[in-house]
Specification:
By secondary structure, this protein is α+β, with helices and mostly antiparallel strands. The chain has a single domain, classed as 4-Layer Sandwich (Deoxyribonuclease I, Chain A). The chain has 4 helices and 12 strands. The strands form 2 sheets. The chain has a 6-stranded mixed sheet with strand order 3-4-2-1-12-11. Strands 5-6-7-8-10-9 form a 6-stranded mixed sheet, with helices on one face. Strand 6 and strand 7 form a beta hairpin. Helix 3 runs parallel beside helix 4. The model has no long low-confidence stretch (mean pLDDT 93).
Length: 233
């Protein structure tokens, strides 16, 4: 079984307004996922409290930070982590002139049953921005799919869209037929599904769930989601 975790950590600021990176680290430890996608990560490697360095202490051989901009708290962006050494690492620029720069990180991993190609992202705030970013992502992922036919492909992260009937969500479902629908935002009482995990390719079984136990219920303004996947033989 393969376990995937997607989590918008809100810079480690919980729904109580308190910044506590330790709570986020504990959520990741307890999830015990093989691949982790984090969004809204701040890091300043010059500080003793570097969050990425703390992530590296969790025992994941692959930890990739993909900053998209710099703020007062440090470099801001996405992180991808994997329990295996990545065969490929790609940082994808998704800046289409929206409210802020956006990006994605793609990892390719070798699993006992075949290749896994997984992409973590945080998309823009406007519908037109998200649509253009989805097309950019699909362009990159399709190239990989053509080259590595039969690979399991995963898209996960904060897609910033919850309305199921939009053109964007219809396109996401068409491209990734195994798609989570867990409500993840706001953390205090989740009622919209901003965060998603989508899969295509050789999927045998998949189950999605939201993490609700402490500290996942308060460590961010989002709740994390997990997918447990059994690839098809």
């Amino acid at each position: 079984m393969l376990r995937l975790l997607s989590y918008n950590i809100h810079g480690g600021i919980g729904r109580d307004g308190r910044e506590d990176a330790g709570r986020v680290l504990e959520v990741i430890r307890r999830a015990d996922a093989d691949v982790v996608a984090l969004q809204e990560v701040y890091d300043d490697p010059s500080q003793d409290s570097s969050f990425v360095r703390a992530l590296e202490q969790l025992g994941y051989p692959t930890v990739v930070h993909g900053p998209v901009l710099r703020r007062s708290r440090g470099a801001y962006g996405n992180v991808m982590m994997a329990r295996r050494k990545a065969l490929e690492i790609q940082r994808i620029d998704l800046d289409v002139g929206g409210a802020e720069p956006r990006g994605a990180i793609r990892l390719q991993l070798e699993l006992p049953g075949g290749r896994l190609d997984v992409c973590g992202t945080h998309l823009g705030l406007s519908g037109s921005e998200r649509w253009r970013q989805l097309r950019l992502l699909e362009e990159q992922l399709s190239k990989v799919g053509e080259r590595d036919a039969g690979a399991l492909q995963v898209l996960m992260g904060d897609l910033n869209e919850w309305r199921p009937g939009t053109r964007f969500m219809r396109a996401v479902r068409q491209r990734f037929p195994h798609l989570s629908r867990c409500r993840t935002f706001p953390a205090r009482r989740p009622w919209i599904a901003l965060d998603r995990i989508g899969l295509r390719g050789p999927v045998g079984q998949v189950s999605f769930r939201r993490l609700d136990n402490a500290p996942a219920d308060r460590a961010s303004d989002h709740r994390p989601i997990v997918a447990d996947v059994v690839p098809a033989e």
